[in-house]
Fold these 3 entries.
Entry 1:
Amino acid sequence: MKIWIDADACPNVIKEIVYRASFRTNTAVVVVANQAIKIPMTGLVSTIQVSQGFDMADKAIVEKMSRGDIVISADIPLANDVIAKGGYVINPRGELYTEENIKDHLATRDLMMELRDSGMMLGGPKTLGLKERQAFANKLDSLLAMHKT
């Protein structure tokens, strides 16, 4: 099992939580981005740099991941593809995307995109706070514990 980070939009604080969990559980992490990303110098963490372009990191993750891997991303279409391939997806706020909830998330995403495009809604999600970081760490720990048993 590996942890994959969709790193282009992943907050640094979330990457740090993943790195610490990786060291604690001896779990490999692959950081995928379209730019160079600084990572800890350890055999557990590696990077894949993809070319610039729409969804290139997402495509690389789905292509290379295996059933049971964990993906860290807030990208709903990517989450849908990962779930279809048998993986787990946690967003940086600690929410686990599942077969049961991904279609609702896709519909909400599409609605929000329409509202933003029409100018009826401005701005993005709230700032990632301590509560969200803790929820993320807890969800990641529970998934890692489930895999290690």
Note: The mean pLDDT is 88.
Entry 2:
Amino acid sequence: MNPFVLADCTTVDAALAQLAGQSKQTTAVKAGGIDLLDRMKNGITDPERLINIRNIPTLRGVQETKDGVTLGPLVTLAEISEHPLLRTHYSALADAAGHAATPHIRNVATLGGNLLQHVQCWYYRSPDYKCLRKGGEECFAQEGQNQYHAIFDNGVSATIVPSSTAVALVALDASVELSSAKGKRTVPLSEFYVKPETDPTKEYVLAPEELLTAVHIPKPAAGTRSAYQKYGEKESFDWPIADAAVVLRMQGDLCQQAIIVLGAASPTPRRAKEAEALLTGKPITEANARAAGKAAMQGATPLAMNAYKLQLFPVAIYRTVLLAAGKMERDPGAVG
């Protein structure tokens, strides 16, 4: 790890002033620092200037509004998991935050950091490979060790979205507020992550001079229920090899609208629209939930070592659909 200048900021304006005119190659923003320090130790990120935003009080907290809820990017995963409002009305997000990593990491890791973490592909994380994501010529996972990689949209890069909270927040129709010295803009989270075919070296639309300053979630309609579950190789504290967030708007026994978002399936959070269409206008039964899980695999292009996900994702989906509908307890086989 090379020497760097540390700028400790206590206001958003001070942080934005430090970011003005900087590039992502020379400057990095630190909140909890969980992912950043790993990348710095591995030589993937080598900033000359580190901007510490951990001590900016206005970037903390959960605020209920007439339109929904606004979360500061410095709210920790543990705080999200335990917050009564989020646990009651935004269960998918509370579930995603509460089953990420380990308890001591959740006490430090922030929502903004979770949304902005870089891909976990071992080729990207290794200093021995200059992969496509790092400006190289190829995605080594295409023909290499790809058992944990994408089964959709993997023609350019086989990496998967690393953020569990992003999967839940896309399902909840969230948006992010991005601030710079020039002003603010709001971006739907469904449009926040950049597809590799657009630019494989860019993971999200956040510009080098911008700071993520808020996350907005709209107020759910009456009859809305949600849930998130993830599945991994180990019983607990594992990265997901399949995860799903489900939001159902129910009227009596009928599903008026279903939103199903998959993580660990593609480079960006993936809407399973075939599964959503199958559930709309129908009762949530085990048979319909299973059919939705199978429908979600249409168009999959598994790689040499990850075809098992074609069997795992349908199970994750149908069980999370039933969990969201209140017709199944949380799966004891889920991890976290």
Note: DSSP finds twelve helices and twelve strands in the chain.
Entry 3:
Amino acid sequence: MTVRPTAATSAGGGRGPRPTPVGWAVLATCGVLLGGGWAIGHPEPVALGVTGLAAVAVALVGTLPSPRLTAERRLSPTRVARGDRAGGVVSVTNLGARPCRGLVVEDHCDGAVVSVRLPPLPAGATVRADYAVPTNRRGHVPVGPLRLVRRDVFGLAYRSMPIGAAVTLMVHPRLHPVGLPPSGREHHLEGPTSDSANEGTMTFHTLRDYVEGDDLRRVHWRATARTGTLMVRQMADVSMPVTTLLLDTRHASYAGPHSGADFELAVDVAASVGYAASSRHFPLRVCTGSHAAGQSGGVSGRRVDNAELLAHFSEIRADDEGFTRALDQVRRAGAGGLLAVVTGWAETDVAGRIAGAARNHEHAVIVHVGERPTDTPTPSGGIRRAAVAELADVARLWPGAKR
């Protein structure tokens, strides 16, 4: 569990005392009573109006003193899957000589205000409050700023004091273990299948200049004599299996009654397949039409850090124009390995548009997510199809593959 505390912050200053919505309603009612009673000459409404004004005035004076407080806020964890639990913890300490009552902690979590009422805080005491942070939206979710609100006993006035800056909660897609089909593991006598293969000891790849520390047994004496420069053999291991992911981000591909949920499931499926590849340290190409991982057009044929991959999928949004760019990325990608296309049931042209790229890969599959509509015809084409109605179904994409 990752915990990131904010710096301890003193609560003081902030906005001065103000009427609450109830207090404003009381003031408006008192104004009507005073005006109406004065106009008709009846003392009773005037007396009620004066009493109400006095009550609001006393409430404002009661919240005027600024308590001496320090607060520390922690977010635990700071990275969570969509729908999983995340929470905030606030510790408030009373540094004053008098007890504080009527304290409420308010935190702004993804546009919503979460309020936690604190018990009476004696002088020198510390109280801790826990609250849940919503995690139903992917992305970097802002949490904060945090405020301490002091209200009077009758809820007529309040004073707001800032006690903590905003922090960020990263909500990444849900993941499920998935195996990958064996691909790209053949031993090539002529060398590795791509330049992305790791330098190793198995296969001769090319000649290069000698670098201090190289094994002298790899010196190529003929090339050294011909060029006058010490040359060594660069050896490489067999190319690792490459996974190419294409995520269909078009709104029209998820046109069913649960289009939003289907798109989120598509992101979860794509992230699960990509996470399976990155966890095995296999090269990965992510084609989503957006900028990712420091490379234009996404991650391209290299090993990807899990955190880097999850951060990329956390920010994916439905984008009609991005799909065209993603198709271009697939066409420019190298051959071999696995090509997985994740889309909805409403798509009609994916198979035809990736047919050429599919022939260049050892395995190609189009994954349809969500509940299949009853009036949907059986997709045609020579590319293998798979259905994922819920995230756990990704475990059956490639039967027998090790997870």
Note: The chain has seven helices and 20 strands.
